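pipeline: protein-struct stage 2 | run 1193 | rRNA adenine N(6)-methyltransferase
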Amino acid sequence: MLRRPASLPLCLNRLILRQQLRTKSGRQYAARDDDEDDKKIRKKKENQEGYIHLKKSRGQHLLTNPRVLDSIVRKSNIRPTDTVLEIGPGTGNLTLKLLEAAEKVVVVEIDKRMVEFLSKRVSERGLENRLTVICKDALKAEFPRFDLVVANIPYGISSPLVAKLVFGDIPFRSATLLLQKEFARRLLANPGDSEFNRLAVNVKLVAEVEFVTDVSKRDFLPCPKVDSSVVIIRPKAEIPNVDLDEWWAFTRTCFSKKNKTLGATFKRKKKVMELLRISKGMGTKDDNSVNGCNYDCSDDEDEEEGMNDEGDCYSSSCLEMGMSSFKEKIVRVLQSGGFDDKRPSKLSKEELLHLLSLFNQAGIHFYDLAKPRDAGNVAFAASDSP
Ligand SMILES: C[S@@+](CC[C@H](N)C(=O)[O-])C[C@H]1O[C@@H](n2cnc3c(N)ncnc32)[C@H](O)[C@@H]1O
């Protein structure tokens, strides 16, 4: 039987009753900032054993439907000898199921309170020897070796986390991830689809993505505003022979205006200037690195930078002098491959690889300070916050 906490108003009591989760030894009460107006009551309850106040800012929506949890584990094809990496285990609903199927589970959780709660649940079952806990931000943590990833991740870090996994140095068989539905659709999108963007093309270069199932918001506690989907990402055995760091910088430029033609994007004065500076080994005007080109993909229209066709934004006259011939070179590359009037959102990765090789043959290269392996610096064009 669930017990109603005595001192609360009835409506709040109902809410908390719905949100009670059982542990073996006690109870966990889970409520949200927005649900509980009486902060004093919350403070008092936080001192009780087993109470965790779930934080929206950390994406703390716990997956509570056992059927969904079981199906995620089943679909992940875990072998008894596997080490599974779980990002954001929360109170451990999925972790306990993973421990039944795998030899070892490594969890990376940012919230100390969750780690304490989870560790207790696991110890109560005598499984602590098979669990490794890393209490850190998953984007900053160094992951140990693992065979698989299975996780209901915080949606706010989906994009850099997927990048960290698929462009990281640790080989793994697959990542079964519960993601925000829209984000999953982007990962699954093909050239020409409205959701197709830089994230999709970058991931497709190195991995296959399979749709598994949609998950209703009602399967979470508390109920989020968005629906979710499970996908499986499988790194490819062989990937194209391309410098991934350069590919990263190249797609950042191509998709900086995903619905503009490549001609319009590459011929913008700022882009020409950046590429020219790189070709001269001078870095960008905004950073001090020699070979760095830190494109800002959010919005970098020339006009907003205070630039005009006379180029009064740059005083470097040697660059100005070389600019028009360099621009012609860029135009020739685009035209030689028929890319001038193409939009990046309609191009396959093969076509983009071809364009990059044409640029390289013409001696034009792309560099980016935000390397894919450094997930903290990664800024995919996609926004994935719920
Ligand atoms: C959506 S909840 C999932 C909880 C649990 N896996 C479940 O399904 O019930 C996300 C979890 O990720 C944790 N988290 C949020 N940001 C994180 C980060 N940057 N690194 C590691 N964990 C994070 C949250 O504290 C929370 O426990």
